Each structure stands twice: as C-alpha cells, then as structure tokens.
Structure prediction request, 76 residues.
Amino acid sequence: MKDLLEEIAKALVDNPEDVSVTEVEGEQTTVLELRVRNEDLGKVIGRQGRTARAIRTLLAAAGMKVQKRFVLEILE
Prediction:
C-alpha cells in the first residue's frame, strides 16, 4: 500500500524525488504519512481536497482486499 501511495504522489507533484511515505502499523489500522515538498502540497490535496479524498478512496478500496483500514495523513 505504501508503494501505491508513493507512485500516485510522485505522478502528481513537480518534485517526485522529495516524496516519502512512512507507514505506521496499528492492529487494525495503518497510518500512511505522506510527505511532499511545501510547494507541491496543493497538488496532492487538490481543489477543496478532491485529490486527497480520491487518494483516500483508493486506499480504502485497496485496503478492503487485505481487510485492513488505511488512514492518509499529508504532511509538509
């Protein structure tokens, strides 16, 4: 799931070399912390959060396959 998020983020930003994803495992939930360069933050979040919401939807759909919940946190 970490790789999926990293590939999506790299495709969206202008500085793909500065994209990093940290995975914090929980019992039933895994938190994925996405870090991008400050000027790319808007591209990952999108207008009114639409891009971030779409990424969260993809993570939820992919998480259903492995029966695990994924939470996306976008950090600077």
